[in-house]
Write a structure and sequence with these properties.
The chain folds into 2 domains: 384 residues, no CATH class; 74 residues, Tetratricopeptide repeat domain (Serine Threonine Protein Phosphatase 5, Tetratricopeptide repeat), CATH 1.25.40.10. The chain contains 24 helices and 2 strands. Helix content is 65%, strand content 1%. Helix 21 runs antiparallel to helix 22. A two-stranded antiparallel sheet has the order 1-2.
Length: 535
């Protein structure tokens, strides 16, 4: 490869990152961005800067498992820089992704002492379309932040092995600070102690750093205990499958992520992943493939970087495989953001061997130039897929329509949420008839009482069309699903007042006042809806 200065490598990575994600700068807020940014009053004042460390990120709406104060803090700073201009938030996400790419480049170069492998690994990591859910989607930033702190921690730890005296202790301290920061960004940072142990195991330092590993394992235990005490992991919205079912599907889940990295096609925000209930053929085949991979790892265990990369991949997927705790989905594209680094290192390691050695196909030797053309074509294809996926994230309607289109008519239970969100997107743009259609599609699959929000939104759509009887019916169904649904009582009172049923309006609002609102801004938001000139 052409020899470049270190600064030149970083500059090229910046250019590649900008090319791959430049069109995301024009995207609007989508999906949870509307809740976590647009409707989040807590990020709009620095008076709440300490409060965000005491609550989960959805606390004003519902109780959730998402305690990520540094994520909320980053949104707070973005809001004070950009207000509600999406460009600034997308810029921050790309900067974080580029910083992570720099850390990958520096770390892999440090581990392999081969700058060409480090550079190529980083390009794959930078442009792979599976990362759009973490980079292009603003609310995916928690993965970027956790990735930054985990990578930084590993890098400090690796450098500590090359340091002596006071500098060594400083690097250990920096590793700890980054670890804690990672935990405050996203729970995936809990894997760090295992990554550090695997590094020392692979590179022969394990018994020299026993005290350090105990310290980091203790920090992880303190975090888990604190979360259980103050921010307990809720089972609401989590998978209800038994541990046995989740466990036997582990090979299937891992093979899925491998296939997603090799063939990143038909990417989607809501993915239905049917779990096997017994040891069927799919489980057996995936298990055999994993056994073959583990056999390869054992055979090549003397190649320390390959062993470490393999352990990195599996360790980063472990907490996201629904084994330790059930999560809110079987699989998700953004969950592979950190794990993919291990895969790319192994991939590039063998690409480098192919490039540097004679390689024959059907008895004919492939020239170096031909192999480089194939490699560049692969990277360009991945970059183009990323650019195309950015367009799909450009707007809620585009995103949800693309997601439903990718189902290709197949029954997908997770499309229920997509229909609901598409209905909201249509309603916001004034496509009321389309919104009604999508809400009704969502209601076909929503069980009682989870259907309350769909009934409520459908009522708003009917109000836009002055269909008061239908709107009343939907609001009553929403209240039946949740007798404490403040918003439904508020809007029902407005409907009765508008139709001259003053006594019923007073009754609905009196009931509303008996219930403690769960959202401090709910009344303001509803007032905006009901005061719309088109209602």
């Amino acid at each position: 490869m052409i020899k470049l200065t270190r600064k030149s490598y970083y500059l090229i990575l910046i250019i590649i990152g900008l090319i791959a994600y430049f069109n995301s700068f024009y995207n609007s807020f989508v999906w949870d961005d509307e809740i976590l940014i647009v409707g989040n009053e807590y990020i709009k004042s620095f008076k709440n800067i300490f409060k965000i460390f005491t609550v989960d990120i959805y606390h004003w709406i519902t109780n959730s498992n998402f305690y990520r104060p540094l994520f909320s803090l980053s949104l707070m700073f973005d809001y004070h820089l950009w207000q509600l201009e999406p460009f600034g938030y997308h810029l921050t996400n790309l900067i974080l992704h580029l910083l992570n790419a720099f850390l990958v480049f520096y770390l892999v170069n440090n581990l392999t002492s081969k700058i060409n492998i480090a550079f190529l690994t980083t390009i794959f990591y930078l442009v792979h379309p599976v990362h759009t859910e973490a980079v292009t989607y603003i609310s995916g930033r928690a993965d970027l932040l956790a990735g930054f702190f985990v990578l930084g921690s590993v890098l400090f730890f690796v450098k500590s092995h090359q340091a002596q005296g006071r500098l060594k202790n400083v690097l250990y301290f920096a590793t700890g600070i980054f670890f804690i920061s990672g935990l405050l960004s996203k729970e995936i940072a809990l894997v760090l102690p295992l990554i550090l142990i695997s590094y020392d195991y692979c590179f022969g330092y394990l018994f020299k750093n026993k005290k350090i590993h105990l310290i980091f394992l203790s920090l992880a235990l303190i975090y888990i205990t604190s979360r259980h005490t103050f921010f307990p992991f809720s089972s609401a919205g989590m998978l209800s499958d038994s541990l046995f079912v989740r466990l036997i599907n582990l090979p299937k889940v891992i093979v899925f992520y491998l296939s997603l990295l090799i063939f990143p096609l038909s990417l989607r925000i809501e993915r239905y992943f049917p779990l096997s209930r017994s040891f069927d053929l799919s489980i057996i085949l995936c298990a055999l493939l994993l056994i073959a991979i583990l056999g390869w790892v054992f055979k090549n265990r003397h190649q320390r970087i390959l062993l470490f990369s393999c352990l990195w991949f599996f360790i980063n997927l472990l907490p996201l495989a629904n084994i330790i705790l059930p999560l809110n989905a079987e699989v998700a594209e953004h969950w592979v953001y950190l794990a993919s680094i291990g895969f790319f290192i192994i991939l590039v390691w063998y690409i480098d061997k192919i490039l540097s050695k004679d390689f024959f196909v059907a008895g004919k030797k492939l020239s170096y130039q031909f192999k480089m053309v194939i490699l560049v074509a692969i990277l360009v294809s991945l970059g183009l897929l990323t650019i195309a996926r950015n367009f799909e994230w450009s707007d809620p309607v585009v995103l949800f329509e693309a997601t439903l289109k990718s189902s290709q008519g197949n029954i997908n239970p997770r499309d229920i949420r997509v229909h609901f969100n598409l209905g909201n997107a249509y309603l916001k743009k004034g496509f009321v008839d389309k919104a009604i259609t999508e809400f009704n599609e969502a209601l076909k699959g929503l069980p009682f009482p989870r259907c309350k929000r769909a009934h409520y939104q459908l009522a708003i759509a009917y109000l836009y069309k002055s269909l008061y009887k239908e709107a009343e019916e939907q609001l009553l169904k929403a209240i039946e699903a949740d007798p404490d649904y403040v918003s439904a009582y508020y809007l029902l009172g407005y409907l009765y007042k508008k139709t001259g049923k003053i006594d019923k309006a007073k009754e609905a609002w009196d009931k509303m006042r008996e219930i403690k609102p769960t959202h401090p801004q709910e009344g303001i938001l509803i007032e905006k809806v009901i005061s719309s000139p088109s209602l």
